[in-house]
């Protein structure tokens, strides 16, 4: 583990339209002590070729032999990571240039193992299309079951405080949410930096775009992954639905 090094894990699948921007958003970070681990999940476009042009001692490219999904791709990236901090970026999303610097300083100030930030939505062309998404100052396990406000590309972890195995994602739908829950369930608190430092691209056809499917998968998480009985699952699900409605009205 390299002191104060940030390992950025990026799963990639057919992202040639956006991947150059993603590379530039990493290279443009004010905080320079980072490594970027791109895990190409058998893309059929030119994603890997584009990344390969920037491969260096700071930018790594791992090419999988078969398409395995984002959870497996991230887990492979986590396994080879060397940083004190681990964070995630998706191949079509972006960060503000001071994202790493501000979040690391925030984590040191809070002496926390798990942090996340606010963010903006952007459209397919990269234009901002939302107000700042508000997040709570802290989030524990039960609060997260009601309303998980942690976007994957904003999450950061101190690997001196959290074991790598706890960060490994299950190979299921909503794998990131399930991972946050399994960490918080161990007694960790997620600390929110309520400043928008990331840009989440809303692309038609993406997993987050299908709200009905997301709602069904949320119920499955409560019942099959968390093992909640139907009464507890329904209790938390009501909060999820209400918060989803409120979020869409903003």
Order of helices and strands: EHEHEHEEHEEHEHHEHH
> How would you characterize the largest beta sheet?
9 strands, mixed
Give the CATH superfamily of the largest domain. Spore Coat Polysaccharide Biosynthesis Protein SpsA, Chain A
Mean pLDDT: 93
CATH topology group of the largest domain: Spore Coat Polysaccharide Biosynthesis Protein SpsA, Chain A
- The value of Rg in angstroms is 17 Å
- Provide the helix percentage: 25-40%
Description:
The longest helix is centred in the C-terminal third of the chain and has 20 residues, at 230-249. This protein has helices spanning 19-27, 47-52, 70-80, 99-110, 141-146, 164-167, 175-184, 211-225, 230-249; strands at residues 2-12, 34-40, 59-63, 83-88, 94-95, 114-122, 138-139, 156-158, 190-201. By secondary structure, the chain is an alpha/beta fold. It is globular. Helix 8 (211-225) runs antiparallel to helix 9 (230-249). It folds into 2 domains: 2-205, Alpha-Beta Complex (Spore Coat Polysaccharide Biosynthesis Protein SpsA, Chain A), CATH 3.90.550; 210-250. Strands 1, 2, 3, 4, 5, 6, 7, 8 and 9 form a 9-stranded mixed beta sheet that branches.
